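Exercise (ungraded).
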Amino acid sequence: MIKASVSLALALLCFAVPLAAQDTTGPGVHITLTYDPGVRPAVVVLPVPGANGDSIAAILRRDLDYGDRVNVIIIPDSMAAAIRGGLDSTGTASTMNYGVFKTLGALAVVQARNTERGLHVALHDVLHRQVIDVNEFALPQDVASRGWRLAVHRVSDEVERWITGVRGIAATRIAYVRDHAIHVVDSDGADDITIPMVGEGLSPAWSPDASSIAYATFGENSRIVVYDLRTGQSRAFGGRRNTNVSAPTFSPDGSAIVYAVAGENGADLYSAPVAGGPAQRLTVGGGTDNSTPSFSPDGHRIAFTSGRAGPPEIYIMDADGTNVSMFTAYGFSTQNYRSNPDWSPDGLTIAYQAYVPDGSGVFQIFTMSLRDQTPHQLTSDAQNEDPAWAPDARHLVFSSTRGGNKQLWVIDVQSGRVRQLTHGASMSRLGAWSPRLAP
Amino acid sequence: MHVSRILPAALVVLVAVSACHKKPEVAPTPVPAPTDTSALRAQHVRDSLAAIDAANRAKAAADQARADSAARAAAAQQAQGAMRASLTAVIHFDFDKSDLRPEDQAILDAKVPVLMANPNVTLRIAGNTDERGSTEYNLALGQRRAATAKRYLTDHGVPAARLETVSYGEERPLCTDHDESCWSQNRRDEFTITGGGDVPLKSPGN
């Protein structure tokens, strides 16, 4: 079918009517693409001319693809030359052949080129044959820097918002543990770095403004460490003799860190002010183990794992520790193991890991909505744990052994599509997705 | 017949010759009485024998003393080794459990007298889990396993201040196979001497 379109398109090119790209968006007027929300809009990202153009085009295409809201059409090589022929040396479309793109099935075309003022990006509506969005995005000078890639990711996120109405999550990072060091990797798997550690650590958590990462050390001198990404400074607290502290999480307003304190009589959740000061006890477990807290996005409630009924289950309580109730109150069995809840950023769903009821003792990822309280199993291949939501409340990062050893994978909850995020000989686990990252 | 005729004739001649030559009289040299010589000689022999005997006995005693000392040292070293081994002996747990099984209580029982005889000895008890279950929940389970062992020891008289509890969760596996023979090894409390162990330990009951 593509081949037929190619010859048709070439024929059409000969009769193409020159049409200048117009910016028809006046102030306060925004024309959106018309498409059926149940169907993914198909989009072409034109080659980007000039230095780093290939990188920019590749990042844009990959980000839109990874967002799972848009189908990126790859232009056949035979057509690429013909399309490029319609652009002048600066990449401006002297001839924007909407007919060609319509033949390809594209709803929109993303056209980017470098200017002195930054990356100039235009979104073309193929059906209405006009530019409906345009902007210039400043990019950092150092094209080899993590910041440059992040800036291009921000462009992708804005373009996705133009196309779908929903901002993308390309300009985010994932913190995780490898060899007891905290790593930070871009959402597309690039630029993996480590942060300086005060000791062997676990369970990274992002502050809501993405300025800090908290983690916990274990064994002797177990404490919570807050690492400031801007200053490079670390601050430790919560260390006490005969005590293990773990699983820190920030409150949504950034003022407190809730974490598990395991001592002489079980483990309970405590809340400590980020600015320093005494911690307050939240759970009274009566000798049972309570761990892995996760706030609702409005900060009013906390989901957590508790063994108070015997096997670990997920509970929800008010943020002050009152009104505790079991969330995973289905199919009770002493063989159950439900743990590691993560509350979605839109407040609607809790993701968690649980043994499937076949007695195999293997974890899978589940979600359960706060409304219907029915579990939905998301994974079934190999062992899958540690789910953490992306800011779009649609993607989850989790650790999986489906590729061999335990690595981080990303799943789109709506389509079920998975992609591998980390690779390597050493295990990756305990992923935490950052908020959207500001410049 | 020929010899018997000569001998008497020779004798006659000898007597005749001796009778012709008479020597002047000389005083005889004094000699010890024959009975004193043999007694003294016997005494000398007895003394020598006694000296040899004493030397042998002394040597035997010295050898024995050396052997005794070596045996005592070996026994002491063995006792030291046994005491340290009992202090650091590992206990194990069932899956997802922190309660003490009878065989593990016995291992803890053996630590108590050594600890009571050596008030300066301090221990660190480290709780561990196998790889199954949630990473963070396993840190709590490891701490619970360490706390259980500590509580048993303090219930039997060991002062709490001498026992420190930490958790390694699933982070310090002894083996990494994904089967029960490995998992059962990893579900453990380890005991490390953190103080008072650089001098010889006193045996319980001394």
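Further reading is listed at the end of the chapter. For now, observe: Chain B touches chain A at residues 124, 126, 132-137, 139-144, 147, 150-151, 164-169, 171-172 (CB under 8 Å). The mean pLDDT of chain B is 88.
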